[in-house]
Amino acid sequence: MSGAVDFCGLALEHPVINASGTFDAIAAQRVFGDALLADFPFSAFVSKTITLEPRAGNPPPRIYEVAGGMINSIGLPNRGLAGYLEHDLPSLAALPVPLIVNVMGSVADEVVQLVEAVDARAEIAAIELNVSCPNVKTGLDIGADPDELARLLAAVRPRTRKPLIVKLTPNTADVARVAVAAEASGADAVSLINTLRAFAAHSTRPGAPWLGGGTGGQSGPAVRHVALAQIAAVARRVTIPIVGMGGIQNGRHAREALDAGACIVAVGTESFRDPLAGQRIARELAAPRV
Amino acid sequence: MTWTAASAPLGRRRITVSDRRTYGAYGVLVLADTNGPDPQPGQFYMLAAVERWGGGADERPFLPRALSVLRAEPGRAHFMLEDVGPGTDRLLELAVGDDVWLLGPLGQGFQPPEEGRRAILCGGGVGTAPLAILEDALRAAGTASVALLGFRDAPHAQGAALLGDPRVATDDGSVGHHGRVTELLSAELDADPHAVVYSCGPPPMLEAVRAICEARGVPAQLALESGMACGFGACYGCVVPTRDGSYIRVCVDGPVVDADRLDTALVAGAGH
C-alpha cells in the first residue's frame, strides 16, 4: 500500500491512525488472536487516556445511539500510570506500529509526572495530551482556553523531547486560537476534533440524563462536517502538522480531512462498526482519485 | 470438561440471509456463515444490514447490534429477534438473499456443569436464544437438562418451539403455567437442589434468578445484555458493575458471567 507519510519524525506506513479511546489493542488481540498483529489496521497506535491514578470510569449506561453517530460517557477508565507501564505497555510494545500514549491530568504537576514517566520509555514514540479536562482549580477546560493551555505546555514541554501532540476540544469558542497557543508553546502537532459535548434525554424521567455520567461526547459521521470546519480553521493559523478526525468512515472522508489541512487522519467511531476500518480507509485513500 | 472458543476472524464478513422464519412474535434469521468458526453456546455476534442501516426511527440504527447465537449448524448461524427498536426492526425486514455484516463469534459463553449435575435452563422472552444452542450442546455431551421458559403471552410463547420440550410460563396464563418462570425454577430446585442454572432474559427476570440461586447456594451462569457499540472491547460502553467494585465489559468478559460475581443482574441502560 502506498501512502507512507512522515508525522513528527515518525515514519508511518499510511496516514490512518486510531483516535484515542476507540480501540483497545490488547482486548482486540484477545478476541481476534495474532491476526491482529499481522493485519493491524492503523499505522500508529494511540492509547486510551492514561491518568496518574487508576479510574473506574463512569457508571452505566455509557453509550447512546443517535442519528449518524453516538454519544459516549465512558469516563476514561484506565489502570493508572503505574498499571499501564507494568501491564499494558509490554503488550502494546509488541504491536507492529509506533506507539503514541495519550495522557491527562487535572493539574500541571500531574501532567508533568505523566509526561516524564512516558518520556523515559523507549517503546513510546510520541505523547498526546488530552486537555479536554477541567482545571480543578479554575474550573476552565484547559483545552478551551489559550492561556490555560499555554501555562500547561510551559510546564510540560521542557520535560520531553518526544513529539508532543495536543488533542484539541471542539467545545470552545475559537479552536484556532487554542491551536495557535499550542504551537507557540512548543507543541509538535495538534489533533482534532475530540467529541462534541452532547446530552441524551432519559426515556422516562423528563429532564434527566440517560447516560450515567450526565452529559457525554458525540461522535460519528454526524460530526464530520463540524470537524472539517475546525480542521480548516486551525490549518489556516498554524504550521505544525494536524491529525484530523471526526466522523471519518471511508477514503473520501479521509481525503476531505487531508484536503482541509490535516497531515494524517484518525478513525474512531467507525472502528466500532468495522474493526478493520482503519486499514480499509487507508486502502481507499491510496486508490487513484476518480 | 470445558468449552473453549476459537478466535473470531478479524474483521466483519459479508454474509447472506439464507432463511427467514417466524415464531409468533419472534423472527429467526439464518445466515450462511460458511467460513466462520463454530460458536460456543452463549457467544454472540455483531450484526448490521449492509443496505439501509440507518433511516429508521430517529434516523437510526447506526451501530451494529449484538445478538446471541440461537443455534449453529455447519456453515449456518441462526439468530432470534424481537422488534424492540430500529436495529432489530431493520434486521427483521431482511429477506432471503439480503446481506448482513457479521462479526464474531464473540465473548465468553456458557460452561458445562460438573460431571453428574443436571442443567436447568431458565429463559425469558428473546433470552430463549442462547439456551437453544446450549441445549443442543448439552444433549451432544450427554448431559441431562430441563428448560423453563417465560413469555408475556401466547404469540411470544411460540418462541418455546425453538427448544426441545420446555416447560412454559406466561404472564397472562394463555399458555402453560400462569405466572413467572422463576416460580417454575424454584419448584425445580426444590426437587433437585444440586442442579446448575443457566439463564438469559430481561433484567428483572435475570435478577430474580440470580437472587433465587444465591439464596439456595446454587451455581448459576447468567447471559447478560448491555448496549454496546463494538463487541470486541474497544468502546468500554457495555460495562456492568461486579461484586468486587470494578466494572467488567459484557462483550469480552461476558456475556455469560457467574452469578456470584454480581450483586445485581439489573443492568443499567438495557433497551435503548
From TrEMBL, chain A:
For this protein, the parts annotated as crossing the membrane are none
Q: Which UniProt keywords apply?
A: Cytoplasm, Flavoprotein, FMN, Oxidoreductase, Pyrimidine biosynthesis
Q: What is its main location?
A: cytoplasm
Q: Which Pfam families match?
A: DHO_dh
Pathway given in the UniProt record = Pyrimidine metabolism; UMP biosynthesis via de novo pathway
Q: Where is the signal peptide?
A: none
Please give the family membership noted in the entry. Answer: Belongs to the dihydroorotate dehydrogenase family. Type 1 subfamily.
This chain belongs to which protein, by name? Answer: Unannotated protein
Protein species of origin: freshwater metagenome
TrEMBL record, chain B:
**Family according to the record:** Belongs to the PyrK family.
Cofactor field: [2Fe-2S] cluster
Gene3D superfamilies from the entry?
A: Dihydroorotate dehydrogenase, electron transfer subunit, Nucleotide-binding domain of ferredoxin-NADP reductase (FNR) module, Translation factors
Q: Which UniProt keywords apply?
A: 2Fe-2S, Electron transport, FAD, Flavoprotein, Iron, Iron-sulfur, Metal-binding, Transport
* Descriptive protein name: Unannotated protein
**Any matching Pfam family:** DHODB_Fe-S_bind
Q: What is the lineage of its organism?
A: unclassified sequences, metagenomes, ecological metagenomes
Gene source species:
freshwater metagenome
Indicate the segments forming the Dihydroorotate dehydrogenase electron transfer subunit iron-sulphur cluster binding domain, all copies: 225-262
